Structures are given as C-alpha cells and as structure tokens.
C-alpha cells in the first residue's frame, strides 16, 4: 500500500529511517537471501554495531521495515459508496504494486515470509492492519443497505486485492487500471450477491 507522511525527528528516528531505506534498497537489488546487515549499515552510513544492536537479525530488520510501511501507509479514503470505496482501494494497491521500488519490495518481503516465520508474522500483521483500515467502508455499505446483512467486510476487502497480487506473484500479467477496475467491480458484485455473507446471516 502506498506510503506517505512525515517521520518524527531526532537522531534515533533518523538512524531508523536511513537503515530502513537502505534495507529496502538492498532487498530490491538482491532479495532476502542476500540481505546482509553489514551491507545495510554501509549503505545507511551508520555503524554496524548500531544495526546489530537494534535489529539483531535480517528477519528483525525486515519485520521493522514492514512495520514502518504500515506506519507510513496513506489513510483510507471515504467516498460514500461501496463501489467508489473499493475502486479507491484497488487503485491504491495497483499503484503500489506497479511502483518500481514498492512492487519489488513486496515481492522480496513475500518471498522472505515463505521461509521465515518472523517475516511471515510481520507480513500477516501488516495486511491485517491494512484490511482493518478498509473494512469500515464495507460496514457502512451494509448500514446503507447496499450489501446484505452478515456480509464479512474483511473478505470483501481481500477479494479486491487478491487478483492484483495474483498477477504480481504468479501470472506476471499487467497490473493496469483496467485490472484494478475489474477487481473492484467483481468484489462489489459478489458482495451484493451475498457471496461473502456468513452462513445463516443473509436475509
């Protein structure tokens, strides 16, 4: 998800920013398997002992990188209708994944999560936070009677981004504006049809 905003000042914050930026660069260039704390320290122009003392391991650094991405994520927009809210979500994911740096960074982090439990935990937390941020737009759509009672808001939000991540990680097909629009429309149509209602709750 796209990032933005400002970071707090202070030497500790500046060191963290420099190290996390350097870690992101190294991940994009070399991937998780070749990520090295000493190389990150050199790129960030900080002492190796600082990096080892604060992050300890490559996995710890990747986990903090994900935490930082969550902190910097742009807030959810509120457009007043389900389809417009889902379009905004799809476009945000699409812009992030096609970004030269962010797309490569997500690939590297996801690869790391497949072989490292701490990286996986950090990744799961990152997406749990992002999904929780966007579920209110589905809850509001239920209140407006745009969706049936019992609709699972988290499942609707997951349905928007799933086709985009499929293209990023598996098919390699373009992740363009039309794809984002299709993902939003498909999720909205399925939700309206009651696909994402909890068993026994739809009326």
From TrEMBL:
Q: Which GO terms describe its molecular function?
A: DNA-binding transcription factor activity; transcription cis-regulatory region binding
What PROSITE patterns does the record point to? HTH_TETR_2
Q: Name one Pfam family in it.
A: TetR_N
Kindly indicate which segments of the sequence are annotated as binding DNA.
36-55
Q: Where is the HTH tetR-type domain?
A: 13-73
The answer on whether this UniProt entry bears the keyword Transmembrane helix reads no
Keyword Transcription regulation recorded: yes
Write the record's keywords in alphabetical order, separated by commas: DNA-binding, Transcription, Transcription regulation
What PANTHER family does this protein map onto? HTH-TYPE TRANSCRIPTIONAL REGULATOR RUTR, TETR-FAMILY TRANSCRIPTIONAL REGULATOR
Task: Indicate what this protein is called per its UniProt record.
Answer: Transcriptional regulator
């Amino acid at each position: 998800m796209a990032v933005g905003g400002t970071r707090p000042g202070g030497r500790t914050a500046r060191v963290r920013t420099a190290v996390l930026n350097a870690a992101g660069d190294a991940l994009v260039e070399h991937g998780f398997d070749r990520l090295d704390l000493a190389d990150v320290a050199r790129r960030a122009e900080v002492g190796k002992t600082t990096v080892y003392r604060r992050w300890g391991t490559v996995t710890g650094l990747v986990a903090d990188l994900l935490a930082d991405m969550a902190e910097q994520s742009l807030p959810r927009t509120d457009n007043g209708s389900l389809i417009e809210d889902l379009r905004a979500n799809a476009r945000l994911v699409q812009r992030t994944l096609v970004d030269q740096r962010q797309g490569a960074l997500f690939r590297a982090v996801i690869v790391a999560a497949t072989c490292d439990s701490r990286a996986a935990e950090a990744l799961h937390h990152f997406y749990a936070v992002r999904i929780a941020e966007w579920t209110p737009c589905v809850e509001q759509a239920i209140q407006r009677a745009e969706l049936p009672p019992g609709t699972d808001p988290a499942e609707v939000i997951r349905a928007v981004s799933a086709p985009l991540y499929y293209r990023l990680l598996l098919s390699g097909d373009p992740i363009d504006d039309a794809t984002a629009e299709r993902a939003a429309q498909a999720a909205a149509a399925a939700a309206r049809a009651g696909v994402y209602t909890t068993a026994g709750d739809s009326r």
